[in-house]
Amino acid sequence: MCIKEDGSLSVGTRVVGVSRAENMKWAVVICAMVALSECLVHVPLEKVKTAREVLEEQGLWEQFRLKFPYNPMAKFDHRFAVGDEPMTNDADLAYYGIISIGTPPQSFKVIFDTGSSNLWVPSIYCSSAACNNHDRFNPTRSSTYRQDGSSLSIQYGTGSMTGFLGYDTVTVGGLAVKNQIFGLSQSEAAFMQYMRADGILGLAYPRLSASGATPVFDNMMTEGLVNQDLFSVYLSSNSQQGSVVTFGGVDPNHYYGSITWIPLSNELYWQITVDSVTVNGQVVACDGGCQAIVDTGTSLIVGSQSDINNINARVGASSQNGDFVVNCNSINQMPDVTFHIHGQQFSLPASAYVRQSQYYGCRTGFSAGGDSLWILGDVFIRQYYSVFNRAQNMVGLAKAR
């Protein structure tokens, strides 16, 4: 139960039309009874073994890596910005949340992806290997399903997802978004069978959406289901629990100090300007400034080949089989990598940017793949609580707890 900006009282997904004065009386009572955070809509994220970790355990990683090369910039290829939705095969994605679709609800594990705009899940009409080991939506079992019939195609770096669009009630964190358009897959890229998540829920701007499908968060805003037109993301570093997407506000329990608000440089993705990247006070990348996308759907930090080579060289990493490896015993002696954004410094210690594997040792989380465009993925977001503000078209960053 929350007081909305227009003074109305929101109870779950309904708005009760009582006077503003009466609402304020209720607000006093409510705030005396519950914490502020309970006026926010929290969707817990589970941190699980990544596809890479599972394949490493099975001794299949090298085979997979060669067959499905990682192309982190595929989803940001502007040739696909209208029509098709580009994605990529990120074997290091570790976080997913649970949503439901239909009446009665059918549950799905989805990646909450700020780098794309469509919602899609596997369907019973898909016979790909990737669908056979994931939950599949059955529209015949939902009394609220309505077919659209338009096709949907999502281009991956090494394959594609094809399907069609339909409408149904999509429930996210207890918020029921009625008549939400979403994709039902009929075929999926082979590498998807190794991912824990069933599908993807895109949280970027509607201009990016394939087939003109209205994104879930846009419908949340239109229907007045959120208290503020923003959402925030906290990714836990050390445990399987604690990670969360919060719709309608920010949760002060997940960050220290104040939030730095950064205006977007492009309202398509969550794109901002990075002034420079330094190591020990010396500029090693983004000299003169560069563009970066804050993306929960990419696991690493991605930049141009020369800049990433410079960073990895400065922290003592060497290239090996497509990764940049370091001595696991040297992590405590490795320098911070600092991103200078909007007049503030956002530093990453080695403990944040080095990934440890019992099979492949220690690797940095800096990956080459961009040109002038960077991706600030989960390696960055784990350190900085990230707020995605649609009302003011800004990204907010604060030190994560």
TrEMBL record:
One of its GO terms (biological process) is proteolysis. Disulfide bonds join 126-131, 286-290, 328-362. Pfam families: A1_Propeptide (PF07966), Asp (PF00026). The active site is at 113, 295. Its EC number is 3.4.23.1. One of its GO terms (molecular function) is aspartic-type endopeptidase activity. Keywords: Aspartyl protease, Digestion, Disulfide bond, Hydrolase, Protease, Zymogen. It is an enzyme of class 3 (hydrolase). Residues 95-398 form the Peptidase A1 domain. Transmembrane segments: none annotated. Belongs to the peptidase A1 family. Shows particularly broad specificity; although bonds involving phenylalanine and leucine are preferred, many others are also cleaved to some extent. This is pepsin A. The gene is LOC114437265.
